Structure formats: structure tokens, C-alpha cells
Amino acid sequence: MMDERSIIDIDDLQLDKEVLRQGRDMRKAGRLLSKARFAHAEAEAHVDLVFADLSHKMRSDPESFDLKDNPPVQMVKDAVTRHKKYQRALRELRERKKELDDIDAFVKGMQHRKTMLELRVQLLGLEYYAEPSDKKMGAAGKELTRRSVRKPLRRRDRDDDDD
């Protein structure tokens, strides 16, 4: 699986590269998820096959499995679930399920990262990360801003005095 730390970390100074990397990483994560789903389905099928095979063998030759002749269905089911071969198949199924869940959580993290990238690009477009304009203006710009703000106030004050 890909590095989990890279899911969270976004370099704000290289959003273009992050967006491109996100697409490649999502494609890789999708492939991993597809493979995990296939492996899980295969493990489920294997459990069913082992159950059917053991059940058939136990019905065909019950004495070799310490069962009485013509055992009832429930007795065969119980014997199959206790058999080591069936237990190994179930363990394999649980491992595949865990891998599937882990990769599914990874994909959800990648989807969250995509949303975060989209929001950061929107903020960048709105100049959210822009420096305050006072730092860019210098002394002359600050004085110009003060005058433009003060003049309308003075005119309004004069208009109020006329009333």
C-alpha cells in the first residue's frame, strides 16, 4: 500500500504537482481495492468449496471422520466447522476481509485528500493565501489608503453639519 502519511500531507506551494499526483495515487488505490475485492471473493468461494468437499466426504465415509452411519445434516455441519481444513479456509477469509477493509479505508482517505486539494485550489483562486496588501504597498500606498478612507468620512461629516 502507499505511504499513509502522503494521504494527509499536501504541499501548498506545489498544488499543481499534488493534483497530478492525486490522480495517479487514486488510480493505484483503485487497483489495490479491486484486487482486494477479488481476493476476498475468491476466499469466500474457497470456504464454500471446502465446506462442500468436506461435507461430501463425511457423508460418503462417515467412519473415517468418527461419525455414525448416515449422520444427520446438523452433525455433518458441526463436524465440518470443526475440521482443520475448514478452519484454515475461514482464517484466510478473515485475513482477506481485513485487507479489504484496510484498503477501503485507504481509498476513503484518498477521497478526503482529493476534497482537501479541491478546497485549497479554490482558496488559492480566491487569493486566501495572499499577503496583506499593507506589506506590498509600502509607505506611499499606506498614506494613499488613509486619505481615501478619511476623505469620505470628512465629506459625510460636513454633510451632516449642513442639516
Protein architecture, described:
- The chain is an all-alpha fold and 163 residues long.
- The protein has 2 domains: 5-130, Helix Hairpins, CATH 1.10.287; 132-163.
- It is 81% helix and 0% strand.
- It has helices at 5-8, 15-60, 73-82, 84-125, 133-162.
- Helix 2 packs antiparallel against helix 4.
- The chain is rod-shaped, with a radius of gyration of 34 Å.
- The N and C termini lie far apart (76 Å).
Helical amount: over 70%
Series of secondary-structure elements, N-terminal to C-terminal = HHHHH
Q: Please report the number of helical segments.
A: 5
CATH architecture tag of the largest domain = Orthogonal Bundle
**Total domain units:** 2
Summed up, what is this model?
Helix content is 81%, strand content 0%. The radius of gyration is 34 Å and the shape is rod-shaped.
List the helices and strands and how they pair.
Elements: H1 5-8, H2 15-60, H3 73-82, H4 84-125, H5 133-162
Descriptive key words:
163 residues; 5 helices; 81% helix; 2 domains; mainly alpha; Helix Hairpins; 0% strand
